[in-house]
Design goal:
Distance between the termini: 30 Å
Number of domains: 2
Order of helices and strands: HEEEEHEEEEHHHEEEEEE
Oligomer: single chain
Shape: globular
Number of strands: 14
Helix content: 10-25%
CATH architecture of the largest domain: 2-Layer Sandwich
Number of helices: 5
Largest sheet: 6 strands, antiparallel
Length: 244
Amino acid sequence: LIGRLMFELPEEMGLIAVAVRQTQGKGRGGNVWLSPVGCALSTLHISIPLHSNLGQRIPFIQHLVSLAVVEAVRSIPGYEDIDLRVKWPNDIYYSDLMKLGGVLVNSTLIETTFHILIGFGFNVNNSNPTICINDLIAKFNKEEGTELKPLSPDCLIARTVTVLERLIEIFQEKGPNGVLPQYYKYWIHSGKQVRLRGEEGPLAWIVGIDDYGYLQVHEEGKGVESVHPDGNSFDMLRNLIVPK
């Protein structure tokens, strides 16, 4: 629906579709995303000039959206310590234990403007099929003796889009260095060791992400190299970065 509408609307008009349920949710690489009632589900259209900081680094958008989801919760007074985090390149995690959301970005370049469709979905009030944000809040209340209220999907979609708008403005003004300190504050990979290309592959350490949003790993004796998300999968359970 948005793919058909996005070229018909005035450039300054925002466009978002919000779903209560999805029956054919899609993830990266053809994966299926299960979307019961209780998820925050939406597709957002934005336009990015090609000749801008973000236009020259389009892969960064998925990182900004993942960060915006986490910030949408952790920027609320009292909710700063809810252990919601980002996993490269496009997942939302509870600590480094369990996925509860993801981001899918499609871009179309027309003349000098990128038309970006951002699909994001994350569990807010549904404990299945994994875990949800309100489970984390209830757990935090029990452990810390607090009385934080559950959050709603609508509230978190609105907050995510608002935070994303601010992150894009910062990125356009300052480039990657304007947002990376906040991104690293919430990501799950700092200092983690991985194996490249297979279970018997060489050991490497995750360093960070480069100016174009690709993962940087340091393999002993070989220096730092970048790993592209479209050609690689990061298997958290086995700490592997493997070609798809």
